[in-house]
Amino acid sequence: MPPHRSLTHETHRPRRSRDGDFPGACAPKWANRYRRHGELGLGDRSSTPRHQPTATPSELLVLMEELRRTHKWSAVRIAFELAQSGTPIIRETVIRHLAEIGINRSRFADSSPQR
C-alpha cells in the first residue's frame, strides 16, 4: 500500500471463489466436507470443544459448592482455603462456577442445590 493512501480507504477485500458466493478459503473447506461426508458434511456443526483438559474437576466443583453452602464463604475465601489445602485456584474461577451453580449471591447460598 503506498504511503499516500488515506486511512479510510478499504485495504482488505476477501477473495472470492470462482462463482463469487464464498470467500476463497471457504470453498475448498466445504468441498472437502462434501467429499468426505456427503450431504451430512454440509450441515451445521457444534463449535464447542470435544474435550477440555484444563476444565475444573467435578470433585472441586462439589467442594466449592459445599464450602459456600456450609460456611457461607465468599469466593475469595473459598479460593484461599483451597490454596491452603494444596489446590491452587484463582478467585475468578470460583466466582464463575458459583454463578453457574446459582449461589454467587449470599442470599442464594442458603437454598438447597437446584440441579
From TrEMBL:
Residues 7-21 have a biased composition (Basic and acidic residues). Residues 1-57 are annotated as: Disordered. Pfam families: HTH_32 (PF13565). InterPro entries: Homeodomain-like_sf. Residues 45-57 have a biased composition (Polar residues). This is Helix-turn-helix domain-containing protein. It comes from Streptomyces luteoverticillatus (Streptoverticillium luteoverticillatus).
